[in-house]
Amino acid sequence: MTINVGTPDRILRLIIGVLLIAAPFITGWALFANPVWMWASVIVGVVLALTGIIRFCPGYTLLNISTVRNKQG
């Protein structure tokens, strides 16, 4: 498993992931009154946070994308 998530991408994934996990429990938005939307938000948030932590995204692998900068030396 090679790293394919770069630092800016990683930080963004972690921030958005934590916000999506917390949103249904902190906000009073009517959208999250429906359990489907609540759990969808939590699941997407967990996936984003995990891919940010382990620095590997299976979707990037399928699309042959990498946001890691190549060090030339």
Describe the structure.
With 73 residues, the protein is mainly alpha-helical. It has one domain (7-62). It contains three helices and no strands. The protein has helices at 7-26, 35-54, 58-62. The chain starts with 6 loop residues before the first helix and ends in an 11-residue tail after the last helix.
Helices and strands in order:
Layout: H1 7-26, H2 35-54, H3 58-62
Helix pairs in contact: 1-2
Keywords:
73 residues, mainly alpha
Total individual domains: 1
Strand content: under 5%
Average pLDDT number: 94
Low-pLDDT segments: none
The coarse overall form would be elongated
| Counted beta strands | 0
Strand pairing plus helix content: what structural class?
Answer: mainly alpha
Separate helix tally: 3
Radius of gyration: 15 Å
Give the biggest sheet: none
Distance between the termini: 23 Å
What is the percent of helical residues? 55-70%
- Element order, helices and strands? HHH
